[in-house]
Structure formats: structure tokens, C-alpha cells
Design goal:
This protein is an alpha+beta fold. It contains 5 helices and 6 strands. The strands form 2 sheets. It has a 3-stranded antiparallel β-sheet, with no helix packed on it. It has a 3-stranded mixed β-sheet with strand order 5-4-6. Strand 2 and strand 3 form a beta hairpin. The chain starts with 10 loop residues before the first strand and ends with a helix.
Length: 147
């Protein structure tokens, strides 16, 4: 593991802890060159395949989902920890299934279900992009579903 401060490769693990929900390991490390301490996360490499609407597949990417959620929650009172929990919850649900392929449509629905509980404005923002709203009427229909 490279030190993010000096780039040195001589680091040691100070502490390791299992994360409860995400099946990840959180490690505190220290660079033996400069003494800088930093945290790393290790996740299980058990790929979930996402089937896109055009039929292509790609591996599930937490970061891609996070970018979409950050756009939807921009200027809302939602912190990164809440978004990470939301993604962890989705990933946990996906990993608990026996099938390792999931459609992007299904993931979008999972996100919307959780956003509806978290923040209604973020829900509408995400839905407008995800469902590709064409006019104002589609916004109103979606708002009616929330009520």
C-alpha cells in the first residue's frame, strides 16, 4: 500500500476492523517513511454484473452510484455517510441474492425506494434523470406517487 502523502510503499497495519454491514475491512495504516497515518478499506471481490438497458454488462461500481446520488442530493442536508449507508444497503441486498446479474433498471428502483425515505427532493431529482422525464407532466405524476 502506498502512502498518500509521500508515495512510500513501506507501510504497516496498526489496526484492522470488520465493518458490520458491508463485509469490508477497515485498516489504519502508518507509513514507515514519513509517519503519516491513513485509513484503507478492503472489500470482497465478488463481482455483481449490471446488465445495462442496451444489453451490455459491466461490474457493479459503487463510485458510479455515489456520483449519481451526490448530484441528486446536491445542496440538500444529506451527508456522505448517509449516502454510503444507502449504497451499502443496496450492495448488501444484491449480494444476498443467488443470482449475480442485476439490471440497471432494478438498481435504479432500489435507489428510488431508499431516496423516497431519505429526501423527497433528491428522489425527484434522481427520478427525473433515471426515468428520463420528457415534460412537466411526468414530474407531476412522480410527485403524485410520493403523496
Amino acid at each position: 500500500m502506498r502512502c498518500p502523502k509521500c508515495g512510500g510503499e513501506n507501510t504497516r497495519v496498526i489496526d484492522s476492523r470488520m465493518q458490520d454491514v458491508t463485509n469490508a475491512i477497515k485498516r489504519r495504516r502508518e507509513c514507515r517513511t514519513c509517519g503519516h497515518r491513513f485509513t484503507t478499506f478492503e472489500r470482497c471481490e465478488d463481482p455483481i454484473e449490471v446488465v445495462k438497458s442496451n444489453g451490455t454488462t459491466q461490474p457493479f461500481d459503487r463510485n458510479k452510484l455515489m456520483v449519481g446520488l451526490m448530484r441528486a442530493t446536491s445542496k440538500r442536508d444529506i451527508d456522505l455517510t448517509q449516502l454510503n449507508y444507502l449504497i451499502d444497503d443496496i450492495e448488501l441486498e444484491l449480494r444476498s441474492r443467488t443470482v449475480r446479474a442485476v439490471s440497471s433498471h432494478e438498481i435504479g428502483d432500489m435507489v428510488l425506494k431508499r431516496l423516497a425515505k431519505l429526501d423527497k427532493v433528491a428522489y425527484i431529482r434522481f427520478a427525473s434523470v433515471y426515468r428520463d422525464f420528457k415534460d412537466v407532466e411526468e414530474f407531476f405524476k412522480e410527485l403524485d406517487k410520493l403523496r
